[in-house]
## 1
Amino acid sequence: MFGRLLKTAAPVCFVLACCLTPLSGAVQKEQSVSLSTQDGWALAALYLPADSGKKTVVLLHDLGKNKEEFSTFKSDLAREGFGYLAVDLRGHGQSTGQGLAYTFAKEGVDNQYNKMTRDVDAAVSFLRKKGVSAEDTVVLGAGLGANVAAKSMSFSPDVSALALISPTTNNRDVLSIPAMRLYKGDVLIAAGAADKKSFLEASVIRNVAFLSAGEGKVTFLTAYDLTSHDMLDKYLRPAVIQWLKTPHQPEVLPDAPLILPDAPTDTQGLLIAPSSTEESLVPSVLGAD
C-alpha cells in the first residue's frame, strides 16, 4: 500500500515542482523605479530590461511633457526586445519633489534645465548597476529632451548612440552643439521641415555631428508637418527602430562619372536614378551666408 502511494504521489510532486520552478526566457515586465540625482532629486521612471544582446534606450521627454509620452514607442521597443528607461525629468510628471518646471529660470547656464544632465547621469548610473554597459546604452530625447540628451554626452561620452528628435541649438539655455563637436558615437537626428528655423538648426547640428563622428555614423530623418513626440509617433517609429538595429550606415559611394550626350549608353529603356550621397540628401548649411 505504501509503495502504491509513493508511485501515485511522485507525478503530483513532479507537477508541483514544475509549477514552482521559474520558467527560463520569461517575458520581462515594466517596472516603476526611482532614480536619485547628485543634487537630491528623486526621479520617477519606468524600466524594462532588454533581451540578451539588445540595447537599452534612455527616453527623455519634451518640455511640459512626461514619460508617458513614449507609451507608443515603448511598445515598439519591447516588441523588438529592446529595453528602455523612460524618465520624468526634474519638475515634470511625478518628479516634482523639489518644484515644478514652470517655476524654473528660463535663462542661465546653471538653471534647472541645464542641471537635467544630472538626470541623465542618474539614469545611466542606474543602468550600470543593472549590468547595462555604455556600449549597450542609447539616449533618445525629444524637444527639450533632445537638447538635454546632446549636452549630456559631455559627461557620458562612452554611450554608444544618441537620437535627437526635434533638437535645437538652444532650448532654455541648454546648448546642443558644444557636446556634439566632441561626441564620436552613432547619431540620429530628426526634424520637421515645416518649421524652417528648427529644421535649419537641426541641419547645423547634423553637420557638426558629421564632422565629429565621421562617415556613416550620422542619420538624418525628416517629416513635414509635425515635430517632437508627434513626429516620432506618426512618422518615425519604424525608422528609429531600424536605426537601433543598424546604426552604422553603409559607406557613401562617390557620384558616378558624368556621361556626355554624345556618348550613348544602352539602358534598355530603364530610367537611371540619380546619385544619393549624404550631401545631396541633406544639403550642408555650414557654409551658408
## 2
Amino acid sequence: MMRYRLFGRTGLRVSELVLGTMALREEAETRRVLEVFAEAGGNFIDTASAYGMSEEVLGATIEGRDRFVLGSKYTLTRDAADPNAGGNHRKNLVASLEQSLRRLRTDYLDVYWVHVWDRRTPIQETLRALDDMVRAGKVLHIGISDAPAWVVAQANTLADLRGWTEFAGLQVPYNLLQRDIERELLPMAEAFGLSVTAWAPLAQGKLTGVAGNRSNPAELTGHERATADAVTRVAAELGVLPAHVAIAWTRHHSRAVLPIIGVSNAAQLETNLAATALTLPADAVATLEAASAFTLGFPGDFIAACDTSAHAYGEAVDRTDTR
C-alpha cells in the first residue's frame, strides 16, 4: 500500500504517486484505472482543462469523490479565437474553473494549478483571484506549474505578506534526462515547503527499456541512449523493471517529489505502482547519475566551490556545520 505525504505546508494527505490522466479517454478503462489506483492506496489525481476528454471521463467515472484529492489546471486557451480565453488573468481563471467543475461533476477542487506562467498577467492578479476561489469554497489549495523559481518565490512571499492563499505545490518535469529543476526550482520548493509533482518521470518512454514509439533506440541521442542503458543495467542488477528504476530515482533526492504516473490503461498502472517499493542503493544512484552527466552550472557550481573554500570563508570553514 502507498504511503502519504502532506501537501506543501497544508494538512492535506496525498499519495506518494500521482495519477496522471491526460491519456484517459474511455470510460470503462478509466473506471478500472481508478479502481486499481484506489486499491493501492492512491488518492491524488491530476488533470487539466486543456486535457479535453480527461476531465469529462473522470467526471463520469469517479466514485467516492471526497475520497480522492482531485486537481486540475488552467491557463491554456479554451478558444483560440478569443483573446481572453487563455492566460492567468481573473476572467480566464473563473471561466476555466467553472468549465472544469462542470466536466468533473463536482462543486470544488482540492488543488487548482496555474498550468504555466503567463508573462502578460501580473502575479498579483492571479494570486488574488485564486484566493477568492479558495474563500468561495470552490478551491481548497493552489499550485503552480512550469514557472521560474523567482516567480514562485515572489508569489508566495507576496501571498504571505498580504494574507492570501499561498502556492502549496509546484508541478514540473523531472527525470534522469531532464534534471534542470535541481538548479533552482527544487531548492526553492524545499525552502518554501512546496510539494513537487513531477511529470514525465519516464521521459516520454525513453527510460522504460521498451523499443517502439517515442522510446525507439534508433531515435535516441547519444546522451539519452547512455542514460537509458544505465537504467536498464541497474534494473537487471536489482531484478526490477527499468520503469521502476526511473521512477524511484525521481524520489531519491527529495521527499518533496511526487512522481506523476501517466497511464492509458490499468495494466500500465499496475506495472508502475511497484516502483513505490524500490529504494535505490547508493551504487545504483551513482551509476545512473554518472550516465546522466548533469552539472548545476552557474551559480550552483560556483557557490558549492566557495562553500568549502578557506579563501572565501576562512580557515574554520571545514569545521563549521551547515544548518
## 3
Amino acid sequence: MKHVYRILLICAIVGFSAQTADAQWRWGRYNDFERLDTIVSIPKYKSNSLYISDNDFYLRFGFLGIELEIEDDWDRDWRSRRRRSRNVEYYEQHDHGTLKGLNFEYGLANFLDDGEFPSSSDLYQVKPIGSTFVGIGWNRISYVSGLLYLDWGGGLTWYNYKFENAATRLDPNGGQLNFVEDLTINSAIKSKLKVTYLSFTAVPMFDFGRGKRLVRVYEEDDVRIAASTRRGFRIGVGPYVGLRLSNKAKYIFKDDDGRDKVKDKGGFFINDFRYGMRLQIGIDGFDMFVNYDMNELFEDGRGPQLNPVSIGVIF
C-alpha cells in the first residue's frame, strides 16, 4: 500500500513538473552533502527526469530554485531500511555554464510625460498603487568572465494601468486616441487599460559574489529536497524588447440594474513593439528591477506622448 501511494504521488508531481524550469545544479554523491561551508563548483547537468524499472524508480525535477529527488528500490523490504533524516547546508559556485530558472516579477506601473508623472488634470493619470506590472519568464544566467554574468530570458509581461478618475474612457474614433470623461455615469467604480507583451531581456550583471549560492538540503528517507539562494551584491543595466499580444480597456460602474462592466478590445493605437532599458540590483536573496520604455506607448501623433515605467521585485 505504501508503494501505491508513492506511485500516485510521483504521477501527480511529474504532471506538474512538465511545465517547470530545468534543475539548477547537479546532485552530488551522498558524501558531498557532508562538505559544510565549503565552495563546490557544480555544473549544469540534466533537465527533469523520471526512471522506472522492475526493481526501482528515480524522479528528479527543479522548480523556482528548488530541487526534488525521490528514489527507491522496490525489491527491498521497507521494514528493513535504515531511516535517514538530516538537514545540511553547503555553498556552490557558478563559475561556468548557464543556470536555468523560472522568474516571477511584480511591481508598480506608471507613465512619464516629458520626464514627469501626469498631473491630476490629466485623465490618463493612474493610481500609483493600483497600477501594476506582472511578469513571468524563463530565466538564464550565463557566466561570461570574472565578475561578469549575463542575465537573459523571455516570457510574458502585463501592464495594468488603473486610472485615477474612474470615469475615464478611451475614445479612438477619428484616427486619434482621446481620453474623455463619461459624465453619463453616476457611480463609476473602475477604469483601466491592460496591455500584454511577449518580452525578451538581456542584462549584463556584475556579480561581486561570483555566482556564490547557499544550498539547503532536507533529506528524509528516500526523498531529498534542496533550495538555493544567491549570496553577495550584484548590479547590471541592459536592454529589453517586447511584442504586443493584446490590449483591452475595462470599465466598471453601477447602474439601475446594479454593478456592471464593459470590456473594449478595440484599437487604441498602441505601438506593436516596445523597447527600453532595465536596471537590476540584488543582494543575497533579494532582487529588484526598474524598467523604462524608451519608445512611447501610443503611436506617434495618435495619442499622448507617454513612456511606461515600472519598478518591482523578482521572485
